[in-house]
From TrEMBL:
InterPro entries: AAA+_ATPase (IPR003593), DNA_repair_RadA (IPR004504), P-loop_NTPase (IPR027417), RecA_ATP-bd (IPR020588), Ribosomal_Su5_D2-typ_SF (IPR020568), Ribsml_uS5_D2-typ_fold_subgr (IPR014721), Rubredoxin_2 (IPR041166). This is DNA repair protein RadA. GO terms for biological process: recombinational repair. Pfam families: AAA_25 (PF13481), Zn_ribbon_LapB (PF18073). Plays a role in repairing double-strand DNA breaks, probably involving stabilizing or processing branched DNA or blocked replication forks. DNA-dependent ATPase involved in processing of recombination intermediates, plays a role in repairing DNA breaks. Stimulates the branch migration of RecA-mediated strand transfer reactions, allowing the 3' invading strand to extend heteroduplex DNA faster. Binds ssDNA in the presence of ADP but not other nucleotides, has ATPase activity that is stimulated by ssDNA and various branched DNA structures, but inhibited by SSB. Does not have RecA's homology-searching function. PANTHER family: DNA REPAIR PROTEIN RADA, DNA REPAIR PROTEIN RADA-LIKE PROTEIN. It comes from Rhodoferax saidenbachensis. The middle region has homology to RecA with ATPase motifs including the RadA KNRFG motif, while the C-terminus is homologous to Lon protease. Belongs to the RecA family. RadA subfamily. The gene is radA. NCBIfam families: sms. HAMAP family: RadA_bact. GO terms for cellular component: cytosol. A motif (RadA KNRFG motif) lies at residues 253-257.
Length: 455
């Protein structure tokens, strides 16, 4: 009996090698090659022939194109992240930590779609049908007509999709599905890639919208080959601390909408509920202003959100600590250097701790000015005025650069009752905003002078 030929597949890029190597020859990642069985040439021939549609060369302006129709899921926050709703033939991949609420949210969305007249199918490979039914009872989804299939074999799932012809199908999760065409175990690189490719082909051919649930690694990235994210139309990440009731769903990739949109949910006894005004959860409730606290307006996709930046400056030892939660640590070190050089505020012998309230992560540089003002406030022991906000990027030369869509940020802050703002000069509105005093600054030292004058 001939021995099966083995190849080694990279779980980062999907590249193959005939022998094991410490470093992948394709993407140069270390320790990512995993052994798998090579398929015979005849077995893989023409498996994806339906994907290779023949077409003539066409001029771009001559191609007829119309906007894709969207079906709302019944959950406004989820629709925002998806770009308005689910798309016929679209494939969505959603990942997140265990127990964060992926299955709960999708079961709620399927129930809403089914009640609006859509045919739905929930394929579970990790739970039995009874466990799914128990969860639906806990969520208050009484008399739900969502069809459930407890199956992990790909061929049976595809046959059920063909027979039932649902509008939306959820596969929970792709790591449990296996194909008879491969001998490797479920969850292996080859199985995940092949099963996802077959399901994607089925979605495009039949028009069913398929939602794949993906596991994540301990680093927080989606498990399996990176090619999985390229294959699908939309990639969503569930974020948030399991000890907190709030969850964020972030769009990392979306062929039918904007990326970096976020949806905010609160975990309740009856499942996940959308939070329409998320700014309220990222602001601490202080009776009076406290030192070291500054509110900024950040942009998450198209949505302006108010986030409180807290700083604590304390006397340190010979090697002071710089610690940040929710903000880039290297950027904090840079801002402290700019603060010393251009504003004369020295923290060389002080421990500096900076935190973004509510577990939110801020990646945009528009938080720079708020971070610097909160550090200065903590160092002086004097709180910033009540109703104060600030935003703006700070450069190494001490200049304050504009942040994108400054008008929307200011309007959102005014809507929530903030009355004093320090912003970059380029973001100063041409028309005054009712109820808000705006101080436009060009340099860090100007911002410090304005704040001292307000105090």
């Amino acid at each position: 009996m001939a021995k099966d030929k083995t190849i080694y597949t990279c779980n980062e890029c999907g590249g193959t090698s005939p022998k094991w190597l410490g470093k992948c020859p394709h993407c140069n990642a270390w320790n990512t090659l995993i052994e798998s069985v090579a398929q015979a040439e005849s077995a893989v021939k023409n498996r994806f022939a339906s994907l290779a549609k023949t077409a003539e060369v066409t001029v771009l302006s001559d191609i007829e194109a119309s906007d894709v129709e969207r079906t709302p899921t019944g959950h406004e926050e989820l629709d925002r992240v998806l770009g308005g709703g689910i798309v016929e033939g679209g494939v969505v991949l959603i990942g997140g930590d265990p127990g964060i609420g992926k299955s709960t949210l999708l079961l709620q969305a399927l129930d809403s779609l089914q009640r609006s007249g859509k045919k739905t199918l929930y394929v579970t490979g990790e739970e039995s049908g009874a466990q799914v039914a128990l969860r639906s009872r806990r969520l208050g989804l009484d008399h739900s007509q969502v069809k459930v299939l407890a199956e992990i074999q790909l061929e049976k799932i595809l046959a059920t999709l063909d027979a039932q012809q649902p509008d939306v199908a959820v596969i929970d999760s792709i790591q449990t599905v296996y194909s008879d065409q491969l001998t490797s175990a479920p969850g292996s690189v080859a199985q995940v890639r092949e099963c996802a490719a077959h399901l994607t082909r089925a979605a495009k051919a039949s028009g069913v919208c398929i939602v794949l649930v993906g596991h994540v690694t301990k680093e927080g990235a989606l498990a399996g080959p990176r090619v999985l994210e390229h294959m699908v139309d939309t990639v969503l990440y569930f974020e948030g601390d399991t000890h907190s009731q709030f969850r964020l769903v972030r769009a990392i990739k979306n062929r039918f909408g904007a990326v970096n949109e976020i949806g905010v949910f609160a975990m309740t006894e009856k499942g996940l509920k959308g939070v329409s005004n998320p700014s309220a959860i990222f602001l601490s409730q202080h009776a009076e202003p406290v030192p070291g606290s500054c509110v900024m307006v950040t942009l998450e996709g198209t949505r302006p959100m108010l986030v409180e930046i807290q700083a604590l400056v304390d006397s340190g030892g010979p090697s002071p600590r710089r610690l940040s939660v929710g903000l880039d640590k290297d950027r904090l070190a840079m801002l402290l250097a700019v603060l010393h050089r251009h504003a004369g505020v020295a923290c060389m012998d002080q421990d500096v701790f900076v935190n973004a309230v509510g577990g939110v992560r801020i990646t945009e540089p528009a938080a720079d000015l708020a971070v610097m003002l909160s550090i200065t406030s903590s160092l002086r022991g004097k709180p910033l005025p009540k109703g104060f906000i600030a935003f703006g990027e700070v450069g190494l030369a001490g200049e304050v650069r504009p942040a994108p869509r400054g008008q929307e940020r200011l309007k959102e802050a005014a809507k929530l009752g903030f009355s004093v703002a320090v912003v970059p000069k380029a973001n100063a509105p041409k028309k005054p905003i009712e109820g808000m005093t705006i101080h436009a600054v060009e340099r860090v030292e100007q911002a410090m002078e304005v704040v001292r004058g307000l105090g």
